[in-house]
Amino acid sequence: MEGTRVLLKESLSHKDYAEIKELEQICLQKDSGIYLKLELDFKIRMAELQNKAAALPSRETNEFFCYYNDQLIGYLGLFNLGGRTAEMTGMVHPKHRRRGVFTKLYQLALNECRKRSLSEVWLVCDSRSASGRAFLRHIQTKPSFSEFLMVHALTESGKPGMNRTAGQETEKGKLRLRKAAESDVLAIMDMNWKCFDVTGFIGMMPEEEEKINRITYLIEMEQQDSCNAPGFQESQDSRNSQLIGKIRVEQYDDSCTLGGFCILPLYRGRGYGSRALMAVIRNLTQQGIRHIQLYVDTGNQSAIRTYQKCGFTQQTTLEYYRVN
């Protein structure tokens, strides 16, 4: 399209962030109710961390922009947190759709993925996005799996709401949530394998994650006590306790995304997951968090029931299309 220019970048600047957020608001006004999984807050914090550390450029392109007369009209972002898989999500200004803008950005991003020998590349689309699904039909691909975006229903007082049945456990014990350290990496890998069938370590080391307010907590059961409520511990001392699960907490201003939540198979069905999750929610609301969300595979009915009992409701469905 005449008058357009394409810009490729390794990471986001604050100016980029502001322009993308402005474009996002324009698109959401047109496509009311859809959700765009752009991961912008995580990306800008990563860029800030790299700038502070004076890290060498990665020479990997992750951000794809299209401008028309200096206005951002199209954006596609790659999200790769270690490993050989990546997600891509993007948008085009409503007035500039059906003119090949997204196709151009998509082809450039796909070429970058091939250059990096990424084994799995997923295009993420809200199931309610008419324009997104039209593009996916155009490239003749079908969804491989889907996730619910679930949001916690905080009460007006800011305290977490909870279904009455969430606190009913068949077996009780004192739980604590301990901040993970680098010495816990092997345990995290083991849980990823047993709970998510993921082999190898994918992601950042715990102490690096903490620098961008992304913290993994290990869920432990203290064996000498059988009645107290869950609580947070800063100590790395795990003596007299049994590791039973983990959860990751990402905070951005007054919002939070939970992820990587799992309970080891041996300890499921005893109410530990609900108790640990409610402890996390209480801690977050005490810190002033107003919005808590998470993603869950639509086929994981056990996890969905746990989230619903703890006050989460489904907001939308995100579909993942493999494009390589």
Give an overview of the whole structure:
The protein has 324 residues and is of the alpha+beta class. The protein folds into two domains: 4-141, Aminopeptidase (3-Layer(aba) Sandwich), CATH 3.40.630.30; 150-315, Aminopeptidase (3-Layer(aba) Sandwich), CATH 3.40.630. Helices cover 29% and strands 32% of the residues. The chain has eight helices and 13 strands. The protein has helices spanning 14-30, 40-52, 101-115, 130-138, 185-196, 206-210, 272-286, 301-309, and strands at residues 4-9, 63-68, 71-79, 85-92, 120-126, 143-152, 174-179, 214-222, 231-233, 241-252, 255-263, 291-297, 312-322. Strands 1-2-3-4-5-13-6-12-11-10-8-7-9 form a 13-stranded mixed sheet, sandwiched between helices. The protein is globular and about 70 Å long. Residues 161-171 have low confidence and may be disordered.
